[in-house]
Every structure is written in structure tokens, then in C-alpha cells.
Design a protein that fits this description.
By secondary structure, the chain is α+β, with helices and mostly antiparallel strands. Helices cover 31% and strands 26% of the residues. The chain has one domain (3-186). The chain has a 7-stranded mixed beta sheet with strand order 2-4-7-10-1-12-11. The termini are far apart.
Length: 188
């Protein structure tokens, strides 16, 4: 069964997380999937909206994409879900209903694979989760869960709307949920 930690973060927060991840372990950040089999590291991972992977080379010496010949989007390459890597999706800034908003990001793993690899992966994942819990704030918005990084929390206090991982439709329910954040924010 997979595990994830959800969060809202801005660029400065993302850079701080990446700094911690790469100073602690020999981690390379690579695209989650690709149109080619060639693997390359992402130089500025906080600039991309697509999912990336944290590849900890102390857990996995080499990494290769798996070819997916048939899919709705056509052929492409991706990583086998049984590999001891972590999927990283950063938060995305959007405008929603005339307001600045921030979609949730996450660190995720399906935790599949060989027993020894899983133990090491769970230990590493737990280290990242503990760092987030220690340095970030529990999300104040009901139903979202997860954590809010310091710069994102400051922006939230100034009116930024925190959203789930997807762009909600403009329905009365979502609009009222958005308005409820204003009341919640004012009570902080």
C-alpha cells in the first residue's frame, strides 16, 4: 500500500526541501516519465510543474526507464513502481475564481518491490516526512490535510487560497469552501 505526504509550498520552500534532500543523501532529481529512454537530472526542480523523482543513489545504484508502448497518450517511458524511488510533485500556483491559489504537492511511493529495498525506502521516506513535520505547519484548512511550508503559510495568511491537488470546478460548493478559508484565515 502506498504512502504520501501532502503539502503546499512556494519556490523558496521547494528549494529548502531540495537542499535538505540532497545534502542528506546522494539524491538526483529526474523526470518521472519521458518521451525518450535517456535519463537526465533536472537542474532546477522547483521550476517544473511535472512530477519528478527523488533517486537516492545509496538505495539504487542505477536507474532506467521502462518502455510503455501502448497508452492513451501514446508510447512513452516511465519508472517501474517497484523501484526504491520517491515521486515528487511540487505545489503549483494558479488563479482560481479571480484569486491566487496554490495546488497541493506531494512526496509519494507505492512501496512495492523487494523486502530489503522496501525497508530502506521506508526509512528514507520517514526521514523526509519527519523533516517536513518538524519544519512546516500542519495544514489549517479542513479536508486538505498535510502541511504548509513557511513561505506558503505567510502567503496564506495574506490571502492565498490553499487547494487540493487538482483544480476544482467553479461550483457553489467549491466557492463556499473557498470563502470559508477567509473566515478560517481571519481566526488565526
Amino acid at each position: 500500500m502506498g504512502k504520501q505526504i501532502l503539502f503546499h509550498m512556494l519556490r523558496d520552500d521547494c528549494e529548502e526541501l531540495i537542499k535538505f534532500v540532497q545534502e542528506r543523501d546522494p539524491v538526483i532529481i529526474v523526470p518521472f516519465d519521458s518521451q525518450t529512454s535517456e535519463l537526465h537530472d533536472v537542474k532546477l526542480p522547483c521550476d517544473y510543474s511535472e512530477s519528478r523523482c527523488f533517486w537516492n543513489q545509496s538505495l539504487l545504484q542505477s536507474l532506467q526507464y521502462k518502455y510503455i508502448p501502448d497508452s492513451k497518450r501514446g508510447p512513452y517511458y516511465k519508472f517501474d513502481s517497484r523501484l526504491p524511488i520517491l515521486e515528487f510533485t511540487r505545489s503549483i500556483a494558479i488563479e482560481w475564481n479571480g484569486r491566487q491559489a496554490l495546488l497541493q504537492g506531494r512526496i509519494y511511493s507505492p512501496f512495492e518491490g523487494q523486502r530489503d529495498d522496501l525497508h530502506k525506502l521506508e526509512k528514507w521516506y520517514g526521514t523526509l516526512v519527519r523533516w517536513i513535520r518538524k519544519n512546516w505547519i500542519r495544514n489549517p484548512v479542513p479536508l486538505l490535510g498535510g502541511y504548509v511550508a513557511p513561505a506558503a503559510f505567510t502567503a496564506y495568511e495574506k490571502g492565498l487560497t490553499l487547494m487540493p491537488m487538482f483544480i476544482p470546478p467553479l461550483t457553489p460548493q467549491w466557492i463556499s469552501w473557498n470563502v470559508a478559508q477567509d473566515g478560517l484565515r481571519n481566526s488565526l
